């Protein structure tokens, strides 16, 4: 931790603390040790074997440094460092105060379970506090798919699906925004730094290579009798189809919403299995799409989007189904009759 209390309960930053003076943890009141050297960022630490809960997680140098830099980034005079919220027995890394508005900032460098994350968010919300999670730079390398990103993804109209990182060397925020899922289930989108640089994130793979990789994934999954792939194949059998026989149009289903921990092409292929059971000429309504999506959802791991509201989740599903219908329309399979109702005019197979 970067701050501790004096005997008179005054908050002191480790960089301003005096050697030889006693300092105490604001939560457990144990005396803490001032650590200030040339190689380390000044900080306080509990004695070994301390049971202190909110402050017990041993902090890395990266975490201490990033937290200090973030306080400067948000403006030192608007920021309370490591405020201990007695009522919650919780301690955000920063509390940013601007006029009547308060924002808890959590700077996460180490792994954290979805359960613990949800619990912390609930705590802040019960306290009437908004919270944002800023990820340590190590996450820049490790977040590549929905599975890695699901816990952290936030949504806004301005940024779409986004993630925020802090980079300690350049001392800037990196925002990945308008994130979508490519054909293979990887994250794609844009990256922008708080210093004003705009960088594209990844170049998409060619259709031919995506096709090859998806077929290979299915082949391997079935060959090694992987439970997930067997379940998907079983579903296709029950509907007189083969998992490998993906309609060509489905390979174009990319830029998907981060709703399912699987390639959106596979998702679209299963939707199309159900669509193809309807005779050509039939009327397809939004409700049918929703019904099919619900039916196949049991075959996939849904993303745990714990940072978003129920409404945001519902909207995301709405966009996903709309995108699917648009794609079929572009390929002459559906014809739009009215808003959210279509006619099936050709078989997708
Ligand atoms: Zn303590």
UniProtKB/TrEMBL annotation:
- What is the superkingdom listed in this entry's lineage? Bacteria
- InterPro entries with a match to the protein in the record: CoiA-like_N (IPR057253), CoiA_nuc (IPR010330), Competence-induced_CoiA (IPR021176)
Start and end residues of each Competence protein CoiA nuclease-like domain: 59-180
Domain Competence protein CoiA-like N-terminal, by residue range, is 8-53
Give the matching Pfam families: CoiA_N (PF25164), CoiA_nuc (PF06054)
The name on file for this protein is: Competence protein CoiA
């Amino acid at each position: 931790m970067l701050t501790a209390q004096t005997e008179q309960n005054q908050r002191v930053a480790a960089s301003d603390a005096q050697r030889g003076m006693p300092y105490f943890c604001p939560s457990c009141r144990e005396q803490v040790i001032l650590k200030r050297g040339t190689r380390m960022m000044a900080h306080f630490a509990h004695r070994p074997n301390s049971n202190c809960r909110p402050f017990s997680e041993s902090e890395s140098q990266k975490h201490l440094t990033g937290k200090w830099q973030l306080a400067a980034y948000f403006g030192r005079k608007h920021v309370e460092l490591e405020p201990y919220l007695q009522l919650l027995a919780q301690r955000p890394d920063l509390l940013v105060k601007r006029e009547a508005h308060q924002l808890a900032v959590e700077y996460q460098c180490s792994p954290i379970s979805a359960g613990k994350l949800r619990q912390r968010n609930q705590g802040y919300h019960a306290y009437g506090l908004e919270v944002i999670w800023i990820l340590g730079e190590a996450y820049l390398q490790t977040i590549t798919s929905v599975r890695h990103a699901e816990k952290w993804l936030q949504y806004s109209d301005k940024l779409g699906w986004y993630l925020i990182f802090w980079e300690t060397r350049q001392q800037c925020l990196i925002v990945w925004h308008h994130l979508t899922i490519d054909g293979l289930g990887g994250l794609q989108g844009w990256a922008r730094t708080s210093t004003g640089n705009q960088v594209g994130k990844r170049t998409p793979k060619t259709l031919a290579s995506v096709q090859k990789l998806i077929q290979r994934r299915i082949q391997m999954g079935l060959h090694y009798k992987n439970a997930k792939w067997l379940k998907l194949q079983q579903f296709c059998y029950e509907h007189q189809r083969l998992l490998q026989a993906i309609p060509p149009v489905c390979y174009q289903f990319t830029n998907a919403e981060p709703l399912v921990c699987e390639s959106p092409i596979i998702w679209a292929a299963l939707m199309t299995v159900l669509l193809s059971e309807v005779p050509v000429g039939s009327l397809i309504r939004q409700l049918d799409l929703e019904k099919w999506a619900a039916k196949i959802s049991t075959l996939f791991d849904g993303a745990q989007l714990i940072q978003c509201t129920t409404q945001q989740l519902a909207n995301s599903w709405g966009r996903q189904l709309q995108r699917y219908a648009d794609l079929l329309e572009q390929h002459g399979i559906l014809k739009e009759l009215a808003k959210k109702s279509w006619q099936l005019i050709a078989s997708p197979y």
